[in-house]
Design a protein that fits this description.
The chain is an alpha/beta fold. The chain is about 40% helix and about 15% strand. The chain is built from 15 helices and 14 strands. The protein is globular. The structure holds pyridoxal-5'-phosphate.
Length: about 400
């Protein structure tokens, strides 16, 4: 007879899965068969993709591909160890130098992913029991997880509200007070009032940490992100994180700041110390992507024009979208099931936008997170607007 208690179901996880399914919260990774500009092929059907973070359309750029190939020929694939053992190459060092100059920061540290970068900052720089982390309520899971993993005290503040932020900042508690926000919020597309935060944090002696995952490459005349756009220097925003997996079309992330903060992150950031360095060829591709961010300014102009066109179309048709000036344009639907059926209806019309549900967004905040990129054409945007109008009319009682 088989011993009891050996399978996932015996451990009770079948009930966990059924619970998720009953609430419309099961997730299923789609398998993409082909990617071609803004189009993806799913289940043999070509769809216009309106939920990628490839804001500048760089992920398939021939120059990125060539840079990766060339560097792989020279360096191979794996970086063979943690950066602190023997995994850091000249290409990584060059990428750190170029990023420091590009962001106007003294020093940069690379990470295999933004998730790890955020865990590292929160645990290495606010890891003591007397430290305080003050964080916007809608911050990304990687920031929340970093706060949970650190020993600092977590205090959340109302979304993008500088008055509540000011109340939460601790003065003279003995420890570090780290104020944490995204620049462009990943699920809402709205912007934090960073200049005001910078002023409040300086007054309170708090260290402001900005996650610019969705601003880097997109905002600022030169694509330097939210801090370039607002001209916030290292003294005003001591810590900056941005990823390479979004507008830069690659993968990985970096943190930038002054010598002492970055040296502390290097010495104490466990997600950096205990993880294999990203492939050197990937660093080479990111260097090429940064070059393209600077050279091909038409990508930001085209993206801006498409966002304006989409917003004008939303107004003309009276569609209930949240007001956002960024590539992230959420259509709030409320219930998880409602969002799933809207996503399926849109897919039948030839457009792909995944349903975003709790815990990624708050309960009752399920939505289609529509993202516009420089790989889209005007007719893609017009077609999406027509499709949204049709599915919303059909969903009316
Ligand atoms: C995507 C994202 C991250 C994580 O970056 P990865 O490189 O994908 O791990 C962190 N913060 C925000 C706001 C993000 O949107």
């Amino acid at each position: 007879m088989a011993a009891p208690g050996r399978s996932g179901a015996d451990f009770g996880f079948d009930r966990v899965l059924k619970g998720l399914a009953d609430q419309g919260l099961s997730r299923r990774p789609e398998t993409v068969q082909r990617r071609d500009g803004a189009r993806i092929t799913l289940d043999g059907r070509s769809l216009v993709n309106f939920c990628s973070n490839d804001y500048l359309g760089l992920s398939t750029h021939p120059r990125l591909v060539a840079a990766l190939r060339e560097a792989a020929g020279r360096w191979g694939i794996g970086s063979t160890a943690s950066p602190l053992v023997c995994g850091r190459s000249e290409v990584h060092a060059e990428l750190e130098r170029v990023l420091a100059a590009f962001t106007g920061r003294a020093r940069v540290l690379l990470f295999p992913s933004g998730y790890q970068a955020n865990l590292a900052v929160l645990t290495a720089l606010a890891g003591g029991r007397s430290d305080t982390i003050v964080m916007d309520r809608l911050c990304h899971a990687s920031l929340i997880d970093g706060a949970l993993l650190s020993r600092g005290r977590l205090r959340r503040f109302a979304h993008t509200d500088p008055d509540v932020l000011a109340q939460r900042l601790t003065r003279g508690s003995g420890g570090v007070c780290l104020a944490v926000t995204e620049s462009v919020f990943s699920m809402d597309g709205d912007l934090a009032p960073l200049s005001e935060y910078a002023r409040l944090c300086r007054e309170a002696g708090a260290c402001l940490f900005v996650d610019d995952a969705h601003g880097f490459g997109v905002l600022g005349a030169g694509g330097g992100g939210a801090l370039e756009e607002l001209q916030l220097d290292q003294a005003q925003v001591p810590l900056l994180m941005a990823t390479f997996g979004k507008a830069l079309g690659a993968a990985g992330a970096f943190v930038a700041g002054d010598e002492v903060l970055l040296e502390t992150l290097l010495q104490r950031g466990r997600p950096h110390i205990y993880s294999t360095a990203p492939p050197p060829a990937l660093a080479a591709a990111v260097l090429e992507a940064l070059q393209l961010v600077r050279e091909e300014t038409w990508r930001r102009q085209h993206l801006g024009a498409l966002i304006d066109r989409f917003r004008a179309g939303v107004q003309d048709r009276g569609l209930p979208l949240l007001a956002s000036a960024t590539p992230i344009q959420p259509l709030l639907l409320g219930g998880a099931r409602h969002a799933v059926s809207a996503s399926e209806a849109l897919q039948r019309q030839g457009y792909f936008a995944a349903a975003i549900r709790p815990p990624t967004v708050p309960e009752g905040g399920s939505r289609l997170r529509i993202t516009i990129t420089a790989a889209h054409e005007e007719q893609d945007v017009d077609g999406l607007l027509n499709a949204l109008e049709r599915i919303l009319a059909a969903a009316k009682p």
